[in-house]
Structure formats: C-alpha cells, structure tokens
Amino acid sequence: MVNTVGRPNFEACYKAVMSKECDYACVPVENSLGGSIHENYDLMLRYDLTIVAEHDFRVHHCLSAKNGVKKNDIKFAISHPQALAQCDNYLRANGITPIPTYDTAGSAKMISENDLPPGCTVENTAAIASDLAAETYGLNVLESCIEDDDSNFTRFLLLGRKGIVQYLTKDVPAKTSVVFTLPDSPGALYKALACFSLRDIDFSKIESRPTSANLLQFLRFRSQLEGKKAREAAKMPRFRYCFYLDFLASELDEDAQNALHHLREQASFMRVLGSYPQKSRLVGPIHAAAQTIERIGSGASSVTLPSDKDTGRLKIGIIGYGNFGRFLGKKIASQHEVSCLDTIDKSKEAHEDGISYFPPYDVSSFLKSVDVVVFAVSLNEFEEVVRSIPVDPLEGKLVVEVCPLGTHPKNIMMQYFPFNTDILCCNPMFGPSSAASDNWDGLPLIYDKVRVIDLRRANKFLSIFEDARCKMVEMQTEEADAFTADAEFITHLTGRVLDRESLPPTIVCSKEYAALLDVADMTAADSFDLFYGLFKFNKNASSHLNKMRDNLAKIERQIAAREAYLTAKAELQNDERQRLLAECKDLLREVARGNIMDDGDISDDFEEKLVSSPPVVLGISADSNSTIGTNSTIPSK
After folding, report:
1. What tens digit of pLDDT does each residue of 6-35 get?
2. Rounded to an integer, what distance in angstroms lies between the CA atom of residue 577 and that of residue 167?
3. DSSP string for residues in 547-582
4. Which residue in the list 76, 125, 156, 489 is annotated as catalytic?
5. What is the pLDDT of residue 313?
6. pTM assigned to the model
7. 606 included as an active-site residue
8. Element (H, E) at 81
9. What's the number of CA atoms in the CB half-sphere (13 Å) around residue 64?
10. Neighbour tally for 430: CB within 10 Å
11. Residue-wise over 482-494: b if at least 16 C-beta within 10 A, else e?
C-alpha cells in the first residue's frame, strides 16, 4: 500500500521525510515550458536527502469553475505560478488575469470553499488545475488542455533518506546530479566541465543559482581553515553562484568517479545529490514495493500525518530561571504553556512573564505537569542538578539541555535518565546580552537529536526556534563542541580581559573599536560561572590561556625592545653629533688663529672630513677675546 500525504508547501515535504514521518518526497524541479522550480533546488541543498528516481509527467491543464459559471464570465484565473506560466498565451488570448496561489489543486479547493483572493468571486474566477482536482472538489471543466504547448512535461524527483546507487547495474541507464561552487578565477567553469567532457561523459542539464547564506558562511569558514586571511575571504564576489549539473552516468562508474575526484580538486564545494535510473525506472526497494502493489492490486490512499492532527500547545518546564532561563521562558510562553523551577524564589519574575513557578520541594509535581523539561543551568551545576531530581517522572518525556557546550551534559543525561526518555541537546548561540527577547532572526541554534522516539514532539519544540527564524544547524554534539568551544572561550576571555570600564567612551570610533565594545558588553552581562564552565569543560582552554599570556608577554618584550632600540639609536646619534661638533670647533679655532695652511697644503684627510661633515651653523668663541658669528664662513679650498 502506498499512502500519499499532501503537504502545504515544498519545504514541508522535505521536513516530513527528514523527521521520518514519510519515507519519500515527490517534488517537481522543472517544466519544459515554465523552466526550473528554483525553490526545490535550494531545498535540496539545505536538506540532506538523496534523489532515488525521476519521472517526466505529461501535464494537462483544465480551466475549471463552479457549476453554472460560463467561460465568458471568467475574469480571473488562480493557480500555482508555474501553471499560470504554462498557460500564459491562453490567458492572454481570453483576457483572463492570472493570480498566483500556493497550489494547482489548492486553487480548485479555494473555489469550492469560496476562499478567494480580494476581488475574486466564484462567479468570475476559475482554477487552472487537473481534471482530477476539478472532480475532487466538484467543479465543472470549462476547457481542457489549455497549456500553451502539447509538449508540456514536468520533471519530478523522488527524494529519500538513503541512496540507491548500489542497485544501479551496468544495464540500467543512470543519471547523477551534483551541485558545486567554483573559485572566482578565469576559466573555472570551463575547467570544471572539462572534468567530464575529457572522459566522454554527457550532460543533460546545467544551471546556476545564487549561493545561499549558509553555504557562503561555510566557504568562508573553510577558507580560514586553509589558512587564508579573513580579508581574503571577504573578497568573495558580490554574486556567488552554485552550479547544478546532471550527467548521464552512475556515480560508481570508473570514469564518473575520476571526473568527480577531479571536480572536487577544483571546486570550493561539491556534493552529490543522488545517482538514480533514467526515464522513470525504479530499482532497489522502491522497485520491490511497486511490484508488490501491482501483484496484490492495491493502489494509493491519502492519509494525514500525526503532526497534522496535533495542534495543541506543549507543556514545557524550565529548570533554572536565571537570566538565560528567563530569556528562553519569555519567548516560549508566547506559543506554549511554560512553568519553571528554581532554588531561589522566582515567583515574582514568573508572574510577570505569565509563567507558573514551582518551589524546589515540589519538584515531583513540576515534572508530572510537563511534557518537555529544559535544563537552563550552568555547566558546573549540571550534574548536581540532574542527580537532585527524581528520574522516574521523566520516563516518556523530552529532556532538553541548552548549555554552551553539550558533550558533558549529554553524557550525564545518557547516564542518569531512563532509556525511554528522549534527549535533545541544543546550543542557542545567543543570549540576553546578544539578542532581543523578541527578535531571534538569523541567530544560530545548533541541535542534536541524541535519542528521540517521539519525533513529533521534538520537532514541535524545535519549531519554536524555526518560527523565530533562527539559523537551524543539526550537528552531533561532539562535533559542534569541537567547532565552537574554543571560539566561545576565547570570546569570553577577550571580553573579560578588555573589561568594559577600561574602554573609554568616544564620540567617534572605528569599526574595530566598536567591535571590541560589543564583545565587552556581551561578556560583561554573563556570570563567571558561565566562563568557568567554558574553561573547565574545554580541554584546550588552558593552552589558550597560556598562549594569551605568552602573546601579552611577547608584546611587552617587543615594546621594550623597540624602546631600547630607539633610545640607543638616539644616544648614538647624539654621540656622533658631539664628535662632529668637536671637530668643527677645532677647525674653527684654527681658522680664527690664522694658522690655516696654504690652499695647496691642506691635507686630503682634512678636506675629506670637511666635505663629508654635515653643515653646521654655530656661534663659537675661538678664544677669550674673539668670536665667530653665526654668519661666519669657512674659506673654501
């Protein structure tokens, strides 16, 4: 049995497969008349799904309206933008104004439910959709096959969590899709395509798309890992593109593997989106399922997902209602029912935030009243807090930690909590000092579904951050700590070394100084417990401290060496000046006494000294009875 599930948008299809609510997603990627559906190309890069099959579907569009409505009455046509583009000539010829909506079948549903855009009525509006959609929603087909060309095909891709390249035998014509970015250098694209053409590998499609912000950030990060300076990374062109390429070969073919290795050497980033059979063929488990359907004669049925049925609010409890716990609680309380528990009486703060407060002695009631438990305590106290609460009430619940480093809390939770307790590690890389409580747009959240049975509940909790437009990064806790631990420690260390009070205010300041002020401000609001936790649970922290100390000592030595050099240089210059002055005095005394020798008798050594000596203007007494003024001159040879 194949169960089909409708989703409100393309991204919801990807999410349904990623969350394991669905096994596969079938999405359109291009139309022979309307061109590519760029959103799905971007989503393939964002979500880690693999292409397992393709299908070219012949599209027939119908103009459908309510019963009793005639074609001459139609002034507006609603449908998906791609469908409207495919029927553009027809709409122009009939004087019908196109109005884009979210879906073709959805437009038929909108007419049947009289849920139409402003200015549209069921009497003057038709839907461009299939005849099946018209039949499903009780509409009358006014005209069929209204697409502009009879070669109107839409290419669909079937996406899954696992690839099927191992099932592609030599007798199965295959296709492979890749995406890559190239350095900003002359001939880069030519060289990339030559990786395939030199091996006689044919292409079926190539297209460029602007690079996403996440990929740009990755490219800058990789440039730093390769030792390039930050300012060089900032020289990336304003418009950076990804190239999507389909070539006609299996990923496992020897020539294709060599071509991909060659491309990886040239590309800044490269990813294989999938290797799959051409022209609607199925292989592997998908083929086996299709044969089963044909054998037993069962068809497809439409179902709903558990996430569609559940629209209720989560009951979320926060353990630790300090600055960060309160920061999270205010945001979460706008969508879900929140309660908190703290060893310090936080009833006043909780009342102000619309949150229920539980005292420590009532921890059992607190745990029984919630679905999700969030530990918003410091790294130093985490193990002590976990040991102090009863674990039996946590069975079947979701436990979330939000510490800046997740490896230590993860190990503690895996050790103490029951096996049927879901565990989610989250690291919001922002806080009260770096973000407004109501604006988390673009701020990063790193999360790891360590042990999750109830995916619906975990995804619903994560949707709090998704709806706030956080930058969601799924990464294993150990890997995330390896990337962020050193950076977080150095940031807080720098902020504490700077000390906000030691940075004087100024009316005009450089960007660099403003950045230092921001770092000092952000870290000044954080407690020393947070900083100590970053030190204690980071094995590299001591080496960073020593390196910071060595760097400061090195700077002091450099300053001392420079000052000693300048002092010595000044002294040497002064000694030389005194020597020259003494020679000039002797010379002037000789002139004043008239003991100068004839011009031809002046020694070469004396002449050399006279010529090489810098000009000096002096007022010197030759003896006690005579002086030479500042305008006196020495006779030339």
Report:
1. 787 888 898 888 888 888 999 999 988 778
2. 89
3. HHHHHHHHHHHHHHHHHHHHHHHHHHHHHHHHHHHH
4. 156
5. 86
6. 0.60
7. no
8. helix 81-86
9. 28
10. 17
11. eebbbebbbebbe
